[in-house]
Amino acid sequence: MPDNQKKLFKFWHELKRRKVVAVIISYAAIAFILLQLANLLEESLDLPLWFDKLITILLLIGFPIAIIFSWIFDVSSKGITKTEPESAEKQPVTHFNDAPEKSIIVLPFENISSDPEQEYFSDGLTEEIITDLSYISDLLVISRNSAMTFKGSKKKTSEIAGDVNVRYVLQGSVRKSENNLRINAQLIDANKDTHMWAEKYIGTLDNVFDIQEKVSKSIVEALKIKLNPQEKERISEVNIDNIQAFECYLQARQEIYRFTEDGLVRGIQHIKNGLEIIGENEILYAAMGTAYFFYVDAGIKPGTDYLQKIEECSQKIFHLSPESAHGYFLSGAVHFLRRNLQHAVIDLKKSLEKNPNNPDCLVQLTRIYSSCGQNDAAWKLLDKTLAIDPFNAIAFSLPGYLHLLNGDSEKAREAYHKMYKMDPESPIFGWFYALALIFAKQNEEAFKIIDRFEKIAPQSTYTRYALFLKFSVLGDKEKALEIITPELENVAKAIEYHSRTITWGYALLGEKKKALDWLENTIACGFINYPFLVEIDPFLENIRGEIRFKKLMERVKHEWENFEV
């Protein structure tokens, strides 16, 4: 955007922010009414001819005064206050000149039904349209996670587009009353701040699949995107052709993405209800497998039982659809959790070929490349991940992780701090930020965060691992060993970054045999980042001279050098 245009945009934004535009419009309307009234009074009351001229002069004098007053002061329910200059953080983001030409965010459809409980339906419709569009390789689609952060936002579409750096915005509303359905949708070109099209769809719940397809196809036509045969088929495909089962699926998705144990339990039950209604279904099995994956990956329910359940879901999907992107994602997740990282890469890449905008798949693949020391491949994927999911704190943790593995502790601290600010009540984000601070040798600040979570989330496994590392750094062996219970060790056996934490703790405490045992487990979990282990990791100094460590590194180097991206 040229400098002159930027200045005009900024000036126009400031006029609107200070309510000058609103004052001008209101003043003009009131002035017109007063002039008409003055003319009537002059005739009916036989007033002097100069009366209406006096009113006109007073209104002209008052006009600049009103503008100046509105520029300086703000009148609200709090009274009259001076308008403060807008801080840099609040100024509109204007990246439109950098935004990809074929890029879009689908904002959460507003639920305007009389029943607020129907919100799952409007959210579900939003997600389904995002899913349809995400299969288009030539279109960058902001993920469901980031799009949902704008739910209920009063921001203008141009600001939202700037925040996520896209060209187009789809927004709409849903009214659902018993079996009746009314959907409004409009596509906006944020660069020009113009509507490309707006449509109303009226029908019944049975028509929802047709409406969803029409909306997706209208976007494709408006953006002049040429679909390949597979993409055309995917948009036209009805994943669940029974409305009751479809509602079960939407309710399940809403629960699963709460990322809580209770939410996952309820979500799986909704999926089971849907399967009872419709029978075997690819999308329902995909949602169930994802729920089981979250159980294990987040450390909520570690164990082989859930791994087997994920694998069963994957197999059922492949039975229904042999080349399913969902099936390959779950198959890749199983390999990842079973430490078969090379096989995980193959399946996750197949999933991305079929669904290039799947943020969960991008995150998992980036994690694998990072842990395996494939930095160039990891950064390349990370750029795509953050482009489509810029407000997902989990995705935002990945730059911090990569900087940490590269030995740049200050950049890691900055990245993890941004992640932490997204959700400062999360023990997971608190732990990773504290870890980055410890790497940056800012122990005092790190310990403050750990102590805070000891008060607000004492039972969290992340809090307890953080306390173990804190006491290990302090050299307080007695307190450290009190923290690391058999239960925590059992959880860490299957989760690489927890296993690495225990390795660090024992190494710092001088427990070399235990440290090497846990280092071997960490490597078995798939962490083969050879440069980090032999040179960068500051917590392994006590064991690098051990013969067993050197032998382990020979194995790691071989696996690292032969890992195929």
Blueprint of the fold:
Elements: H1 3-17, H2 20-44, H3 50-72, E1 73-76, E2 79-82, E3 103-106, E4 110-111, H4 119-134, E5 140-141, H5 144-147, H6 157-164, E6 168-177, E7 180-189, E8 194-204, H7 208-222, H8 229-236, H9 243-256, H10 261-278, H11 282-297, H12 304-320, H13 325-337, H14 341-354, H15 359-371, H16 375-388, H17 393-405, H18 409-422, H19 427-439, H20 443-456, H21 461-474, H22 477-483, H23 486-492, H24 496-508, H25 512-524, H26 530-536, H27 547-561
Parallel strand pairs: 3-5, 3-6, 4-6
Antiparallel strand pairs: 1-2, 6-7, 7-8
Helix pairs in contact: 2-3, 4-7, 4-9, 9-10, 9-11, 10-11, 11-12, 11-13, 12-13, 13-14, 14-15, 15-16, 15-17, 16-17, 17-18, 17-19, 18-19, 19-20, 19-21, 20-21, 21-22, 21-24, 24-25
In round numbers, the mean pLDDT is: 85
The quaternary structure here is single chain
DSSP E strands, number: 8
Tell me about the biggest sheet?
A: 6 strands, mixed
| The CATH fourth-level homologous superfamily of the largest domain | Tetratricopeptide repeat domain
Count of helical stretches: 27
Which consecutive residue ranges, at least 5 long each, have pLDDT under 50? 87-96
Structural class: alpha/beta
Radius of gyration: 29 Å
CATH topology of the largest domain: Serine Threonine Protein Phosphatase 5, Tetratricopeptide repeat
For the record, the CATH class of the largest domain is Mainly Alpha
Whole-number total of structural domains: 3
Could you estimate the helical fraction of the residues in percent? 55-70%
Structural shape: globular
Strand content: 5-15%
Reported CATH architecture of the largest domain: Alpha Horseshoe
Distance between the termini: 38 Å
